[in-house]
Design goal:
Blueprint: H1 2-10, H2 19-22, E1 30-37, E2 41-42, H3 53-68, E3 77-81, H4 88-98, E4 106-110, H5 116-129, E5 135-143, H6 157-160, H7 164-168, H8 173-183, H9 188-207, E6 218-223, E7 229-234, H10 246-249, E8 272-282, H11 283-289, E9 295-304, H12 314-324, E10 334-337, H13 342-352, H14 365-368, H15 375-390, E11 394-401, E12 405-413
Parallel strand pairs: 3-4, 3-5, 10-11
Antiparallel strand pairs: 1-8, 1-9, 2-8, 5-8, 6-7, 9-12, 11-12
């Protein structure tokens, strides 16, 4: 079994650091000085449905400039995590130039499925640590109104016929959710209870204004059902369903009856438009520039497992990351795990033995939405905001990744 295999490997890893080491402050630390996001809105229905990928990136980068007051000439590289848009690199380049970042800066886009936003943060952080750049911006963005992760045609049989796991890479994500539910005996009742808690936490957080310091209002255009266009300002997440209970979710029909009886539109992540951005540099650079230090980037890692149960990816990535830094789950204050499906959320929580009070305290992707390329960065924005509010220190983020992977990131709040 994949978890047992990784667990065996971890026993032989040499610890690289400890809690005292990761919380220490050194001039060469890579730090986050700003972390913001757009509202997350329903694809094809919500406030950003008519907003292009390039405009979301432009608006976020412009706000990053305004809020940080950094000289844009100092920004050397911008990396965008995106899954479904093959022209994302072109659109990012246009967006950053429109936002006033000079053409002396470079940019790129990348795709590691649902971890793309975290991968962008890691790539910029590693470039800074290696001395390749001094200041960089990591982003994640997805316009799921016009894109998604569905395959347009089957893979070449000369490849898929060689291996069942190669063939399993074609399984739609809903199918993998049912595999997790069936293989690990996770019931519809457990899944609906988990999903209801996500909605209730998100509703409570939104009503209390807890998302306000995360979200950048977006002034954009919107076409109403009657065909009329108007200018609107999108200020809040619109996927949260007030008053959701496990009992109300139990009434929702099964989404994938051809694959199983447990996954529904109420206990799976929402299809969503949105973006997030993180400004990074070394601690010494931040001090020199007078930039506020929000958090320290400690590290991140990836791990693989069988494609058909891709949802349990955090259970292999998280132990690997914690072992690398010689810290335990008891040291973690806030955990943000992407709720791709309630099946994997329940499995990851219970298998890792996570304190549910620490896990997604403001709700997760079931309630807020999952704009594929943005989520990995969005979790950092949300997690750090929660750490600031509660005075907590250590943030762990993680997500499953299509085709059978997991990624995890570790951060230290300093505000």
């Amino acid at each position: 079994m994949a978890v047992e295999r990784i667990g065996s490997i971890l026993k032989h890893l040499s610890p690289g650091s400890s809690l005292s080491q990761i919380t220490s402050k050194n001039a060469d630390d890579v730090v986050i000085t700003l972390a913001i996001r757009t509202p997350l809105t329903k694809a094809r229905k919500g406030g950003l449905k008519d907003t292009s990928l390039e405009y979301m990136c432009f608006a976020l980068l412009e706000e990053l400039r305004n809020r940080s007051r950094i000289d844009p000439k100092l920004i050397e590289d911008v990396c965008l995590g995106n899954v479904s848009d093959g022209k994302a690199a072109y659109k990012l380049r246009a967006a950053m130039l429109a936002a006033g970042i000079p053409n002396t800066a470079s940019c790129s886009s990348l795709n590691r499925f649902c971890s793309s936003g975290l991968k962008a943060v890691a790539d910029i952080a590693h470039a800074i640590s290696a001395g390749s750049i001094e200041v960089g911006v990591a982003m994640g963005a997805e316009q799921m109104t016009v894109g998604g992760d569905a395959l347009e045609k089957p893979f070449d049989e000369k490849v898929t016929s060689r291996s069942q796991e190669a063939s399993d890479c074609m399984q739609p994500m809903g199918w993998t959710s049912e595999n997790v539910s069936r293989d690990f005996n996770i019931t519809r009742e457990e899944m609906d209870k988990f999903a209801a808690e996500s909605f209730q936490r998100a509703e409570k957080a939104q009503n209390a204004g807890l998302f306000d310091d995360e979200i950048v209002p977006i002034r954009t255009t919107f076409q109403a059902p009657d065909g009329k266009w108007s200018e609107i300002t999108v200020t809040k997440d619109d996927g949260i369903r007030p008053g959701t209970t496990a009992e109300s979710l139990a009434k929702i029909r099964v989404a994938f009856p051809q694959w199983g009886p447990t996954t529904t539109g109420g206990n799976a992540s929402q299809v969503t438009d949105g973006a997030a951005a993180v400004l990074l540099m070394k601690r010494s650079t931040a001090i020199k520039l007078g930039q506020p230090i929000l958090a320290k980037y400690v590290g991140s890692t990836t791990a693989g497992l069988a494609p058909r149960i891709m949802g349990i990816g955090p259970t292999v990535a998280i132990p690997k990351l914690l072992a690398q830094h010689n810290v335990s789950l008891a040291d973690i204050d806030v955990v943000e795990i992407n709720e791709a499906f309630a099946s994997m959320g329940v499995y990851c929580r219970d298998t890792l033995g996570l304190d549910w009070a620490k896990m997604n305290p403001r709700g997760g992707a079931i309630a807020l939405g999952h704009p594929l390329g943005a989520t990995g960065a969005r979790q950092i924005v949300t997690g750090l905001s929660e750490c600031r509010r509660t005075g907590k220190k250590i943030l762990l983020t993680s997500m499953c990744i299509g085709t059978g992977m997991g990624m995890a990131g570790l951060f230290v709040n300093e505000q």
